[in-house]
Design brief:
CATH class of the largest domain: Alpha Beta
CATH topology of the largest domain: UDP-n-acetylglucosamine1-carboxyvinyl-transferase, Chain
Strand order of the largest sheet: 21-22-1-23
Shape: globular
Largest sheet: 4 strands, mixed
Structural class: alpha+beta
Bound molecules: uridine-diphosphate-N-acetylglucosamine
Strand content: 25-35%
Length: 424
């Protein structure tokens, strides 16, 4: 098994450039099915979740051409419905966007149930509520999701999402883009990747208003057309690097970002005593002495992101005093705390709440990446803790961080990828 080997405890310096946002890119890549034409996507991160999504599209009959590392041309003209390979679909969570895209284009969809990080139960009832509001019949049976529009096609309607859900908001939007008439999504999620997906679809000729607010209105159009579109920067990658700066007592410039997207992270790091300087497309994070304890509640955007829960927990271990993290999105997001305990952390978990007794330090250890962001947190912890940390199961990290080892080496980190071959 490949692993990361880190010699931690040394300060870093310089600049880290942020890649395109995973959660926007997966939605936009799978939304190209609706376009039925040639699109060029720029700033597409070269990570395994995106490469799996591209492999799914190729297997379905799309022509996928890599023009450069982060630029891909996708022609979905000849895509065939219901042909997404089950074994690829099961390797990523966001493959559920194929249901909205296929339904919107073909009036039917057949896709295997998705995979992704294990945070406890991850239902899709709200996605189904969205499809049904447009007239579709949906069955989930034998590990497959099957959706069928009425004979005359999907018809726009109002749908109230009982919980704020990123996936259900985007999926309903995908199904509605080519439906007849007006669809209104109420209690929509506000995340920047929802706005990015809507901007992409609008650039292709869709009529979507209100993305980024509670109410999204989609007036169906008959056809979309191809475009060249640039994916927004990844706010969670940016946030991970911001935490890394404070955790390693460093000064790092995190560039190529939209600073507004990381406002909640900047606010919490400032509260802990780090100095944040905002530039047009960058933030500079500077460690300024012992970190203070704080409390965190994760919430849908613009609240503090759940996908920064594990990385922030590492920082709270490195602060002095007791901090509390309340997880407001997922039932089971604290599994990673077992791994942090191996590094000397003192954390008690009760349901959706973790009480972190910060001692100001962590110790090097052999740990596992239990999911994508948990794995990123182990990298931050390993770079902060003096000595040799080894991280296993790093395929989780490779799902969402482009070129991580090289980026970190570029700011002076002693981190290397050891492959199975190296170990043989
Ligand atoms: C997306 C992100 C994930 C992030 C999460 C919350 C992608 C590919 N993944 O996941 O990284 O952690 O947003 O910011 O973009 N829920 C239901 N029924 C549904 C759908 C969701 O009850 O039909 C619940 C979930 O169990 C969870 C909450 O709603 O408690 C939010 O989930 P949601 O926003 O849908 O997360 P994802 O889109 O799966």
């Amino acid at each position: 098994m490949d692993k990361l080997v880190i010699n931690g405890g040394r300060p870093l310096s310089g600049e880290l450039a942020v890649s395109g946002m995973k959660n926007a890119a997966v939605a936009v890549v799978l939304a190209t099915v609706l376009v039925e034409d040639k699109c060029v996507l720029e700033n597409l991160p070269d990570i395994s979740d995106i490469n799996i999504a591209l492999d799914i599209l190729s297997a379905m009959g799309a022509r996928v051409t890599r023009l450069s590392r982060d630029t891909v041309e996708i022609d979905t003209t000849f895509v065939k419905v219901g042909t997404a390979p089950q074994e690829l679909v099961r390797r990523m969570r966001a493959s559920y966007y194929l249901v909205g895209s296929e339904l919107g284009r073909f009036g039917r969809s057949l896709v295997a149930a998705p995979g992704g990080c294990d945070f406890g139960v991850r239902p899709i009832d709200l996605h189904i509520k969205g499809f049904e509001a447009l007239g579709a019949t949906v069955n989930v049976d034998g590990g497959f999701i099957e959706a069928t529009a009425p004979e005359d096609g999907l018809v726009g309607s109002s749908v109230y999402l009982d919980l704020v859900s990123v996936g259900a908001t985007i999926n309903t939007m995908l199904a509605a883009v080519r439906a007849k008439g007006l669809t209104v999504i109420e209690n929509a999620a506000h995340e920047p990747h929802i706005v990015d997906t809507a901007n992409f679809l609008n650039a292709c000729g869709a009529d979507i208003k209100g993305a980024g607010t509670d109410v999204i209105k989609i007036r169906g159009v008959e056809r979309l057309h191809g475009v060249t579109y640039t994916i927004i920067p990844d706010m969670i990658e940016a946030g991970t690097f911001m935490v890394l700066a404070a955790a390693t007592k460093s000064r790092l410039k995190i560039s190529g970002i939209i600073p507004k997207h990381v406002d909640s992270i900047s606010a919490k790091l400032t509260e802990m005593g780090a100095k944040i300087t905002e530039e047009d497309e960058a933030v500079i994070v500077e460690y300024q002495g012992p970190l203070k304890r704080i409390n965190i509640k994760t919430l849908p955007y613009p609240g503090f992101p759940t996908d920064m829960n594990p990385q922030m927990c590492v920082l709270l271990c490195l602060a002095e005093g007791t901090s509390i993290i309340s997880e407001g999105v997922w039932d089971n997001r604290f599994r990673y705390t077992e791994e942090l305990r191996r590094m000397g952390a003192s954390i008690k978990v009760d349901g959706r709440v973790a009480v972190v007794d910060g001692t100001g330090e962590l110790v090097a250890a052999r740990v596992r990446a239990l999911d994508l962001r948990a794995g990123a947190a182990m990298v931050v912890a390993g770079l902060a803790a003096p000595g040799r940390t080894e991280i296993e199961d790093i395929y989780h990290i490779q799902r969402g961080y482009e070129n991580l080892v090289e980026k970190l080496q570029g700011v002076g980190a002693d981190i290397r990828l050891v492959t199975t071959q190296d170990q043989a």
